[in-house]
Description:
Blueprint: H1 4-8, H2 23-41, H3 57-62, H4 76-90, H5 101-128, H6 140-164, H7 169-187, H8 206-215, H9 225-241, E1 244-253, E2 256-266, H10 273-294, E3 302-303, E4 309-311, H11 313-317, H12 324-347, H13 352-373, H14 381-408, H15 413-422, E5 425-426, H16 434-441, H17 445-465, H18 472-493, H19 499-504
Amino acid sequence: MFNWGVLTKFVPTVEKPKYRLNFKEKAKWTLLVLVLFYILGSITIWGVNPDAVAHFEFLEIVFGSRFGSLITLGIGPIVTASIILQLLVGSKIIDWNLRSEEGQKKFTSAQKLLTIAFCFIEAVAYVFAGAIPPMHPSFSLFIILQLALGGIIIMLFDEVTSKWGIGSGVSLFIAAGVSKTIFIRIFNPLTQAGELPVYGEPPAGIIPGFIASLMEGTPLFFSLLPLIATAIVFIMTLYIQDIKVEIPMAFSLPFGKFAARRWPIRLLYTSNIPVILTAAVLANLQVLGRALYSKGITFLGTYNERGVPVSGLMYYLSNPSGDVGLIIVTVVGSIFALCFALIALRLWRKYAARFGIIGAIVGMVTGYFLLQYYNLPSISFDSALRAIVHLSVYVISSIIFSIFWVNTAGMDPKSVAEQFKSAYLTIPGFRHDPRIIEKVLSRYIPALTVLGGALIGFLAAFADLTSAIGTGTGILLTVMIIYQFYQQIITQHYEDMPPTLRKFLGE
């Protein structure tokens, strides 16, 4: 049999720490990686024509990249390699037992090698698709090497963060990119051209632009819609993130059971992984479509000079966020959904999710009638069709990736039951037998896998339709990533955390 470890000996690897790192050390490494990530994003690739670089906003947000810089590829190669391996292992084309230590080593080794391969493959695709155009054709090879090197550096940054820092590099880079986008879009005092505004020329930032319109006596209230949508998506994500099912459990030792507690299974059981993978697939398809279009092949769609699809399959898979009527309807629907859910939390807690769905429907109908009453731009049939396709693709893809992730990441009922056994945990009222625990867990985990995947996919797509700053998908991922960082810090470093920070976090 082929030994994956032989090849990985020639691949740069970050060693694991030989001692337990405290919070201060982990925070130091995480901050260092974040600063270096921002520095790499400000370094332009030598030999590139900066005026002709195509900026795919969706790719830059989802992949934590910046086109034309050393981090052009971002986390794209890492996520793409993970998707392919998960599909191969999940479908048993590659028969690896990921529950064993040997199987996990094989998976990690193969993922690293595949990531390096995709660094070069995607670099070639970007250059020959015209997304990263060279100033002279003779510079193409050197540009490809720079792009691939930047991707490999990001892979190593991810390893450093995972082993020496807090969370993972993939999550950190997504959150960093989205946070930067949100901050600039809200507070940028310059114009779109990057110059100081003159009279009659509004700043690019939402708040400076709105203040400028107030001073001119023509307040543009519609310009605040993206800011309102962003706040709503933040609140909805935090609310859904905290919904869970609690299973009673206790330690089972030879001299009896004790220390009863509850083990929470969250509604979003697979967290944000399904959305990251779904967004990565759509982003790769967009790059492939642009590459094919540059060669005259248009079955995936045609693109304008900014790299935005204007027809074909990718046009209908992309987010129809430019329709003002659609934005108003989805924002009003979000407001109603949030209000209904908050009211239900106070009166009928267990029906909060149902009231939220009812509120969304009532709000969208109300928003549609507001368009008619105030003679605002209505929703076109084309935008409505694209919205339905966008929602459907996200929901279905997120369910599929959620199922694959559970089966390949050791989160299925059988694997969790084995983890219970090794930790001497049992469910009160049942024998300490993994098969019994697996049967109990099977009542919850498969259902939450499908329901959580569908919900996270719907929320991401629905948030996209509101034209929230940083895209709905980006905000959704960022909120969940920050929440996970918070939980990890509290659970692992409560004791060695500085008192000031402990007080700030509310603990």
